[in-house]
Amino acid sequence: MVQARSVNLREHILDVASGLFYKHGVRNVGIDRIIAESGIARMTLYNHFKSKDLLIEEYLRRASSRWMKWYAGKIERASENPRERILAAFSVLDGWFRSRDYRGCSVTNAMVELADDAHPAAAVKDEYHESLRRLFGGLVSDAGVDDSDELVEELIVVLRGAMISALVDGPQGVAARARRTAEHLLDAHLDGKAAAIRRASSA
Question: Which residues contact 88 (CB under 8 A, 6 or more apart)?
Answer without folding.
Answer: 74, 75, 78, 79
